[in-house]
Amino acid sequence: MLTKDTAICLRTVDYSETSQVLTLFTKTSGKIGAIAKGAKRKNNSFDGPVEILAYGPVIFKPAPNEGLATLAEFQQMPVFLLLTRKLFTLNAALFAVELTEAFTETNDPHPNLFDVLFNFLNDLQQTQDFKDATSLLIVFQLSLLSEIGARPVMKNCANCKTPLTSEWGKFYFSSNANGLICPDCQSNYQDRTSLSHQTAHCLYDLSKLTEATEATINELEKLMIRHFTHLMHRPPKTAKFFLKH
Q1: Which fold has domain 3-74?
Q2: Where are the beta strands (DSSP E) in 62-197?
Q3: pLDDT digits (tens, 9 = 90+) for 79-107
């Protein structure tokens, strides 16, 4: 039986001279692996070779026993073309799809996360500078963690539950604790990272990102990269484009 869905392409690998193996994030079926036979031929059902960030309706035959699905059609729509016109928007988009692939399970639907990713990519291509693009990326990264049930504790100390206030004086973050740590608890976590007042309060209230300085945005994204490195047990491949800032 064929399945109809809507997909965003997270990854492509050449399978042969004419075919590709794709990782697709679909709205109702979740993440799937699929083979696109003949995708690189001139006349095919996929509007040409499938690229990362391709979006549109798909038809596929689900795979038995968690193997590769067979892609029958992919109507690639020119929705995210503007992402490729600026290097910083393309890098942010590639970072987002890398994390989406890493933190979702095959055949586990996340329709809300699909919408979050779509809206992030759509908003991202409208940004005009690195700061705004990185701010959107931070919000997406936290939304992804929320969707998988791993959002960091940001309103209080992750250890003793003391509410975050300016009276803390110093602010810390621990991936092992999965959140902010108060000064009284910081010595219990060797992986702790010291945060500026501004960065800690942006974590507490994401609406402050719109008024944050570029230095604060960069500090916050580096924190997110360290946290995802902890969760993945390796640095995300696309993180290097943001660490240099």
Answers
A1: OB fold (Dihydrolipoamide Acetyltransferase, E2P) (2.40.50)
A2: 69-74, 171-174, 179-181, 193-195
A3: 999 999 999 999 999 999 999 999 999 99
